[in-house]
Amino acid sequence: QVKLVESGGGSVQAGGSLKLSCAAPGYIPSECGMAWYRQAPGKERELVSTITSNNSTTYVDSVKGRFTTSQDPAQHTLFLQMNSLKTEDTAVYYCAAADAYECYSGSWLGEYNYWGQGTQVTVSS
Question: Helix, strand, or coil here: 21?
Answer without folding.
Answer: strand
